[in-house]
Structure formats: C-alpha cells, structure tokens
C-alpha cells in the first residue's frame, strides 16, 4: 500500500525557517565521535523536527548506528554538541539518562526479544520497568498489540512467530511507552522485501500519529521509494541531506523488483490499524 507522505496535517514543515526551528527535537552540531582506533563520525550536523520521518543510509561502517547511539546517549561526542529533547549531552547529568530513554523507543535488526516470554509479556515488560500501574499496562499493551496486528498471537513465544511478526512485537514494545522518538536501526535487515515493507508501513503509521522516527538502513534502494528526508553517510560524514518530495514515483517500487509481490494482490499479513487508533 503506497503511503501518502503528505496526507497528515501533523507533518512538520521543513520549508520555512519558523516551523522547523520551533519543532527541533534532536540536533547534532559539529559532532565528531572517535573510538581509540577509529574515527566513527566527522563534523556531523543536522536537526530533526518533532514528528519527522528521517532515513539514515550509507554503507556498512558509515556511522548510522553511531548516530543513533549518540541520540540515545549510549555514546557521547568526542567533539561538538548533541541535544535531544532539550537535553545537552555534554552537560547531561548521567542520572537523567534513563528519563531521556523513556522518551525513546528502539527497534533493532535482530529483534532482541525475551525468548522465554510471551508476546504480551515482552511488550508489558517495557511498561513494568518504568513502573506503570498494572491496569494501565493491560490497557496499553492491548492497544499497541492491536495496532501491530498481533493481539491474536499474544500468548505465543517469539520462536513461534515469523521474523516479520517478531519485528512487529519489537515495534510494539518500542511504542508501548508512547515515546516521542523511535530509533529503528536496520529494522528490516533480516526480513524479505514484502515483510520489510510491512514493518516500514507500521513505522509510517506511528509517524503519522506524531512519533519522530529515525530509520537506518544500508539499503539506499528502499529509502528512495519513501518520499521522506534521507541523510546519506559515507566514512562518518554526511554526504547529502535531502527532503524528497511527493514527486517521487512510488510505482518505482514495483519496477525495481523488490516489491513485485505487491502487484500480485494484497499483501499477506496486512497490518490492521483500528480506525480509532
Ligand atoms: N565500540 C566501537 N569501538 C571501535 N570502533 C567502533 C565501535 N563501534 C563502531 N565502531 C566503528 O565506527 C564506525 C561506524 O560504525 P557504525 O556501527 O556506526 O556503522 P554503521 O553505519 O551502523 O554500519 P552497519 O551498516 O554495518 O551497521 C565503523 O568503522 C566501526 O568499525
Ligand atoms: Mg549499524
């Protein structure tokens, strides 16, 4: 299902100085990140507006995960400034980091689910650890599992799910605390193209509901079809930062072979989003 990137009235305007500046939620200013034997990021500068959908792409080792680690303050810049939701990494009291992370959801390539717990418990766990009361946990988990289309499979263990379903659980877990920011690091890396598109559609839906999403992938072909802002990294530096507009030909996804299965009819396992969501 093609996603209309301009349909949401909530989508922030990047054109025009005022709206973007007022809605900046993440900013990286002349950021360098060095490891003892490796420079991972060099003079990286960008801002992300509240509610934006940003794609980070570039080859393996380009620095995509490093940027996500800086945003979640799992890493700190060697030089420059990282500011997330008004919190400046350099002057951040480390005890406030858990508070910041509550406002950030994470999805990884390898799902990282608790294998010995059910779908329901995997999602509920994210609420338990931040002390949400029991009845509210039940409400929130029910809501988010319905959103990702997995309520019926809530009693299953991860090993009883397909890869795409496991990733949907991971998205539900990331979103159950209603974070302002969702960081998805190669979330489609282990999935076939059709299943990958389902996960991407799910991320678009959460973005339409106001979550700022940063999606990283080494697959430039996928992000070309999105019609969203794309930052391309090479060797730790930004080589382009473009907002692709709606003139992107979305039928291209049928031509490039990746999404040919879609032309055969509706996709299996279409994710259902209740209209009241
Ligand atoms: N903990 C670390 N110690 C030393 N070097 C590291 C560390 N983490 C990452 N690097 C290096 O930093 C560079 C950027 O790594 P990063 O993981 O950000 O790349 P990436 O774009 O996410 O790659 P991939 O697509 O393979 O996930 C790489 O050269 C990597 O080897
Ligand atoms: Mg990576």
Low-confidence stretches: 1-17, 245-277
Main beta sheet: strand number and arrangement? 6 strands, mixed
Shape: globular
Report Rg.
18 Å
The spatial strand order of the largest sheet comes to 6-7-8-3-9-10
- Helicity level: 25-40%
Span between termini? 18 Å
Overall mean confidence score, pLDDT: 83
- β-sheet strand percentage: 15-25%
Number of DSSP strands?
10
The run of helices and strands is HEEEHEEHEHHHEHEHEEH
Which class do the helix and strand fractions yield? alpha/beta
Number of helices: 9
Ligand inventory reads: adenosine-5'-triphosphate, magnesium ion
What does this molecule look like?
With 277 residues, the chain is α/β, with parallel strands linked by helices. It has a domain at 107-178. It contains 9 helices and 10 strands. The strands form 2 sheets. The protein has a 6-stranded mixed β-sheet, sandwiched between helices. Strands 2-1-4-5 form a 4-stranded antiparallel β-sheet. The longest helix has 16 residues, at 193-208. It starts with 16 loop residues before the first helix and ends in a 22-residue tail after the last helix. 38% of the residues are buried. Residues 1-17 and 245-277 have low confidence and may be disordered. Bound molecules: adenosine-5'-triphosphate and magnesium ion (MG). Residues 64-65, 185-186 line the site of magnesium ion.
Could you list some keywords that capture this structure?
277 residues; alpha/beta; six-stranded mixed sheet; 29% helix; 24% strand; binds magnesium ion
List the helices and strands and how they pair.
Layout: H1 17-22, E1 24-35, E2 38-49, E3 53-57, H2 64-71, E4 79-84, E5 87-88, H3 97-101, E6 104-108, H4 119-128, H5 134-147, H6 163-175, E7 181-185, H7 193-208, E8 212-217, H8 220-224, E9 229-234, E10 237-243, H9 252-255
Parallel strand pairs: 3-8, 3-9, 6-7, 7-8
Antiparallel strand pairs: 1-2, 1-4, 4-5, 9-10
Helix pairs in contact: 4-5, 4-6, 5-6, 6-7
This protein binds adenosine-5'-triphosphate and magnesium ion.
């Amino acid at each position: 299902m093609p996603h209309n990137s301009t349909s949401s009235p909530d989508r922030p305007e990047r054109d025009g100085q005022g709206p973007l500046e007022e809605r900046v939620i993440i900013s990286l200013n002349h950021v360098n990140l060095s490891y003892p034997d490796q420079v991972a990021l060099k003079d990286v500068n960008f801002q992300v507006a509240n509610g934006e959908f940003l794609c980070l792409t570039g080859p393996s080792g380009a620095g995509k995960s490093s940027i996500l680690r800086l945003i979640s303050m799992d890493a700190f810049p060697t030089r420059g400034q990282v500011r997330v939701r008004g919190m400046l990494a350099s002057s951040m009291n480390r005890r406030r980091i858990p508070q910041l992370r509550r406002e950030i959801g994470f999805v990884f390539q390898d799902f990282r689910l608790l294998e010995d717990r059910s779908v329901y418990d995997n999602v509920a766990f994210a609420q338990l650890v931040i002390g949400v009361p029991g009845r509210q946990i039940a409400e929130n988990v029910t809501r988010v599992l319905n959103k990702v289309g997995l309520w019926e499979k809530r009693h299953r263990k991860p090993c009883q799910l397909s890869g795409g379903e496991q990733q949907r659980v991971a998205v539900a877990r990331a979103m159950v605390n209603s974070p302002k920011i969702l960081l998805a690091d190669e979330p489609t890396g282990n999935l076939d193209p059709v299943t990958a598109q389902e996960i991407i559609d799910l991320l678009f839906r959460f973005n339409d509901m106001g979550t700022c999403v940063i999606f990283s992938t080494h697959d430039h072909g996928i992000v070309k079809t999105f019609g969203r802002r794309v930052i391309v990294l090479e060797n730790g530096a930004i080589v382009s930062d473009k907002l692709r507009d709606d003139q992107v030909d979305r039928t291209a996804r049928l031509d490039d072979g990746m999404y040919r299965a879609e032309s055969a009819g509706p996709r299996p396992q279409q994710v259902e989003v209740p209209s009241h969501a």
